[in-house]
Amino acid sequence: MNTADLQFNIIYTPHTVEHLTPFVASLLHWTDCSYRLVANGCSEADCRRLQDICANSDRLDYARAPGDTMLDHGSTLDWLPGHTDSEWVCSVDPDL
């Protein structure tokens, strides 16, 4: 498998976007993988920020977990496989 074929889901929860999105730049720099920035219960402002970050790279994608409140971690991971085109469902913590 070529690592360029992998898409990692990075799940952001309320009050984490501002502090943890700077790490995405290092992932893009040091890997050839792609990443989906997933908003889980985030504010509209944080969702816009994630979308803006994704607009700056063809290796970034945006998704929003369902509902207006944060899903528990297990439910979010269960939701991901049905909402990806990738053969593999990978996730990574946003503070990596």
Task: Give a short synopsis of this structure.
The protein is of the alpha/beta class and 96 residues long. The chain has helices at 17-20, 22-30, 44-55, 73-79; strands at residues 7-12, 34-39, 60-64, 90-92.
- The H/E string reads EHHEHEHE
Q: Which oligomerization state do the chains in this entry correspond to?
A: single chain
Biggest β-sheet strands, sense, barrel: 4 strands, parallel
**Fraction of residues in H or I helices:** 25-40%
Q: What's the N-to-C terminus distance?
A: 23 Å
Question: Which stretches of 5+ consecutive residues score pLDDT under 50?
Answer: none
Explain the overall architecture:
The chain is of the alpha/beta class. The protein is 33% helix and 21% strand. It has helices at 17-20, 22-30, 44-55, 73-79; strands spanning 7-12, 34-39, 60-64, 90-92. The chain has a four-stranded parallel sheet with strand order 3-2-1-4, covered by helices on one side. The longest helix is centred in the middle third of the chain and has 12 residues, at 44-55. The chain is globular. The model has no long low-confidence stretch (mean pLDDT 91).
